[in-house]
Amino acid sequence: MPGAAFLSGERVTLRTVEEEDLDLLNRNVNDPRVRRPLTSADPANSEQTREFFEEVVSGDDSVNLLICVDDGDEPEPVGDIVLFKIQDRRRWAEIAISIAPEHWGNGYATEASELLVDYAFSERNLHRLQTRVIEPNDASARIWEKLGFTLEGTLRENQYYEGEYVGTRYYGLLEDEWRQ
């Protein structure tokens, strides 16, 4: 059973990541369809995923949440979302998300992202959020653009993806832009 509900939307709830959720996180990071478009994910075995959970997910430097679909008796985990590199003094952080491929195209990523963005600005009192998307990942770019993020620049050919070098797009959103 996923952890306690932290943020709730119409169709998804963001819940705390518990030890029993590590299998889903491990499957996602090792699925080439999920891993390749991420800008910083390497394959991980179960022990590495457990270490990540103990050192990062359970730590104070990030907000790691499980994305669950609430369409039945028990919430179904479909991915995870994280607010990381949180700089409280500078009031900014980075946001990233991954969804299991069988749940792509249902709007879960957009709804989960909207919940966490609102939390970051409303409850964490952040001033700025940023995210990264590799160039071939247009679906992810659309999520951030839909939420009002601005393309701030592209690092050219800094990632190797499916046999070629591609760039990484950097998106940013300021608190006052979110509130408009």
Automatic annotation (TrEMBL):
Keywords: Acyltransferase, Transferase. Its EC number is 2.3.-.-. It is an enzyme of class 2 (transferase). It comes from the Archaea. GO terms for molecular function: acyltransferase activity. The keyword Transferase applies. Residues 12-172 form the N-acetyltransferase domain. It holds the Pfam family Acetyltransf_3. InterPro entries: Acyl_CoA_acyltransferase, GNAT_dom, N-acetyltransferase. SUPFAM superfamilies: Acyl-CoA N-acyltransferases (Nat). CDD domains: NAT_SF. Belongs to the acetyltransferase family. RimJ subfamily. PANTHER family: [RIBOSOMAL PROTEIN US5]-ALANINE N-ACETYLTRANSFERASE, GNAT FAMILY, PUTATIVE (AFU_ORTHOLOGUE AFUA_3G00765)-RELATED-RELATED. This is GNAT family N-acetyltransferase.
